[in-house]
Amino acid sequence: MKKSLLSLLLISSFAFSQYSDLTQGLGFAAGMPSGTGFSYRQMNENHGFQITAGGLAYSYDDEYDLSEERIESVYDGWKPNTNEIITERSWESNEKFWGNIGLTYFKPLHRAEKSLFYGFAAISAYYTTEKYVERDYKYFQETDSTYIYKPISEETELRETDLDMFVGIGVGLTYNITNNIRFSLELPFTVSDQGHIWMIVPQGGLHYFFK
User: Fold this and answer.
1) What is the pLDDT of residues 78-97, one digit of tens each?
2) C-alpha–C-alpha distance, residues 99 and 110, integer Å
3) Which phi and psi angles does 8 have, rounded to 5°?
4) For residues 166 and 105, is the Cβ–Cβ distance under 8 A?
5) Could you tell me which of 73, 78, 84, 76 has the C-alpha nearest to residue 142?
6) Torsion-angle region of residue 3: left (phi > 0), alpha (psi -120 to 50) or beta?
7) pTM of the predicted protein model
8) 93 Rama class: left (phi>0) / alpha (psi -120 to 50) / beta
9) Which residues contact 43 (CB under 8 A, 6 or more apart)?
């Protein structure tokens, strides 16, 4: 009996030691200042860091046809301004790309048997680019009561890009679901490069620690 208990204690001690020594993990994270996508997290005894990156490219069709003309009738006293130039936009055969990268620094504050409480600071960049088509239109009077709305220029293909930066600081908690799988929940105070402030928007992650 004593030998069995001793063996169990040795096995438990060895398993806990292996479990505690795991510092490197791969998984998925989602957050404004830390980035969204696949991530690598390393959590050492006194500090840690995380790199997160993700991207998405896709295309879709807009049913709006910029070559269309339409006839509209005067009603309830409404008459269009024939001097006004109206720019229409279409995303026909549109291509869009979204991507981001984030870097997070961790400072462990308190360790428990299955959890870790920590502070962190993070910075991320989100980039989007989208292709679309523009064309100018005007109203032309056809009769006393009808106007025709038709294009006055050729279609122009344009591309719109946007880059947003976020910086955040906050606290987080990692919970050890199993010896290798760990779930994290974080509450950051976030500021964008446009000066917008998000007080507390939660972010989280799920990682498999392998080494």
Assistant:
1) 788 888 998 888 765 677 89
2) 34
3) -60, -40
4) no
5) 73
6) alpha
7) 0.71
8) left
9) 23, 25, 106, 108, 116, 118, 174
Residue type for 206, please? L
CATH number for the domain formed by residue range(s) 25-209? 2.40.160
Domains of the chain, by residue range, sit at 25-209
Question: How many Cβ atoms are within 10 Å of 41's Cβ, its own excluded?
Answer: 24
Residue 127: predicted pLDDT: 96
pLDDT of residue 146 exceeding 60, the answer is yes
